[in-house]
Amino acid sequence: MNLGQAIIEALESLNSNKLRSSLTILGIVIGVGAVIAMLAVGNGAQNTITGSISGIGSNLLFVMSGNSNQELTNIEPLTMDDANAMLDQFQAPSVEDVAPVVNGEVTVTSGSESTATFVYGVTTSYESVRNYHVTEGSFITEDQVLGKASVVLLGPDVAKALFDRTEGLVGETVRIEGQPFKVIGVLESKGGSAFVSQDDVVIVPITTSQARLTRRSNDRIDLIFVQSISADALSQASEEIAQILRTRHRTKVGEDDFTILSQQDFVETAKTITNVMTIFLGGIAGISLLVGGIGIMNIMLVSVTERTREIGLRKALGARKKDIMIQFLTESSLLSLFGGVIGIGLGWLISFIVGRIALSSGTPLNPVVGLDAILLATIFSTAVGLFFGLYPANRAANLEPVEALRYE
Amino acid sequence: MENDLIPVIQTHDLRKIYKIGEVEVHALAGVSITINRGEVVAIMGPSGSGKSTLMNLLGCLDRPTSGRYILDGEEVSELDDDQLAGIRNRKVGFVFQSFNLLSRSTALANVELPMRYAGVSKERVQRAAAALKSVGLADRMNHKPTELSGGQQQRVAIARALVNHPAILMADEPTGNLDSKSGKEIMDLLLSLNKESGTTLIIVTHDPTIAAQTQRIIHLKDGLVEEDIK
Ligand SMILES: Nc1ncnc2c1ncn2[C@@H]1O[C@H](COP(=O)(O)OP(=O)(O)O)[C@@H](O)[C@H]1O
Ligand SMILES: [Mg+2]
Asked: Which residues crowd ion ligand 2, with CB under 5 Å?
């Protein structure tokens, strides 16, 4: 008996018991739907996170003090002089610009309103390196850095928290840790993200921060953003600044007391995390697919018992074991294939709804139902049907014709 | 008939022993018979005498515990399951007391079934239709079993049994579930098909009037041939 006929017969048989077939399919529908939705949401989350990392700026390196790879005793902190040394045209030709930063957590108040936020002490180059724009006012100037001016740029989230608006704030005074600062501008929104909010910040001159907010000894800084001249020059730039820091900190070979990460490194880390999440969630969803498969096995066993006489008759008419096997495997595979196809639709619907809910709650999450997920679900659900159909089909194939024909 | 003396069934000391725990039941205790091509044979005997067991062995549904069985020139007592399935498909037609039709399928599809397992695809529908016509059901081909009378259902079963042109046709109480009128029609049909095509016909029956219509009666008792009347 060829496969085409087997499929037609299987369809007739499934069709003759519609309610039972649909209920059996339901288990697979839910399983596949859950897997598809989980993969889609995982993919969407990954895109959102990597997108927000890319939004930090372009061609960026992050230089930090310390090194997680080694047990070092005398770690020299990064200083303003380190940052300035990286601007050397000859030692670091691949470096476009450098933005040193000191940061901390502060409380900002205005009148009775108060909010806890992050403060970034920066130089003028921070604007271009981090790709910040102001919606009103202007960025911090060189004079304000030199003069340790008490001026501040408000991130849009902070502006909303304190004033309920993001316009007409230039000239207002806010208090950071109790000290008065004059507002010189409001930052443009970089868009929200669950990972790092780039809008919930205030920015002040680095010198002011060092002297009055974070109170760092010497001219110690926390972080240096380095922008390379192009994306291709990123690894070259990384090598150049590493060399400069090694010389300045007089470190031994292989004992760097600093860490340089590229945006790509962050993207990779974020991807690893979201992949683990996706696999985890997908795995949980996969269990429901397994349960669906057991449902198929159950129904196929019932069906084999019910049709014992039919199997006996088919054997009497010349059906070989293989023919009976194929008959029942075709039925179970078709059941789960239908379930898989409907499940893909359901999964797509769920991811669409999750995306809508996420959007309305302020997190731009765009679940992606990939072709690979669809292919995987189709193959996997058919395989589930085949696998769980195997035992019942085998049982049917091995019935003794005489016994089966006598079955009441 | 000229082929009267060509043996289609030859058994030598055929035995079937069922073991139930420690007890051995000798359902067949050494049956040696020869049935020639074209013969019409009735198998009779009291309940438990081994009629069904003999039918199952002759129909290749089961293997003997010992003894030899040559069907249409082929030694079949030692074949494996799938080989036996092939023999049943090509050489044996079955008619059961309870018809055993697939209720979901039409008469035509039911008759097609043995050809499916034989791998016939091209002339399948024509052959099935011709078989239904030969049992007088040309106008009922697309009816399902539930839409047919008992006699008509048994006719479909006979068409199905004959469609692969088997060497023997085995009928186990073929009229047992029918009223006397349709029972007689079915017997007449079987006998006329035997005349036309020369298919060997073996009928298990309790009914002496049916047995009287055959050329030979084999009486079984306690798994042995008690009497073989030609
Ligand atoms: N599967 C079986 N297991 C055990 N004993 C069986 C089995 N089939 C038949 N028998 C026994 O074999 C003997 C012959 O049975 P059977 O061929 O069915 O007789 P009949 O058809 O003439 O009534 C009986 O004693 C019956 O109990
Ligand atoms: Mg019997």
From this structure: B 52
Cα A245 from Cα A72, distance rounded (Å): 16
Mutate to test the interface with A, among B58, B89, B116 (most CBs of A within 10 A): B116
Q: Which residues of B touch A1 (CB under 8 A)?
A: 116-117, 119
In terms of phi and psi (left: phi > 0; alpha: psi -120 to 50; beta: otherwise), the region of B73 is left
pLDDT tens per residue, range A136-180 = 999 999 999 999 999 999 999 899 999 998 889 999 999 999 999
Residue-wise pLDDT tens digits, A266-285: 888 888 888 898 888 888 88
Residue A72 reports pLDDT greater than 70 = no
Q: Which residues in chain B have their CB less than 8 angstroms from residue A322's CB? A: 82
Q: pLDDT grade, residue B1 (50/70/90)? A: very low
Ligand 1 nearest-atom number relative to CA B47: 23
Pick the CATH number of B37-66+80-229 from 3.30.70.250, 3.30.70.260, 2.102.10.10, 3.40.50.300: 3.40.50.300
Helix H or strand E segment including B16: strand B7-20
First-last CA distance in chain A: 27
Contact B79, B61 (CB under 8 A): no
Q: Do A12 and B89 touch (CB under 8 A)?
A: no
Q: What is the pLDDT of residue B70?
A: 95
Q: What is the ipTM of this complex?
A: 0.94
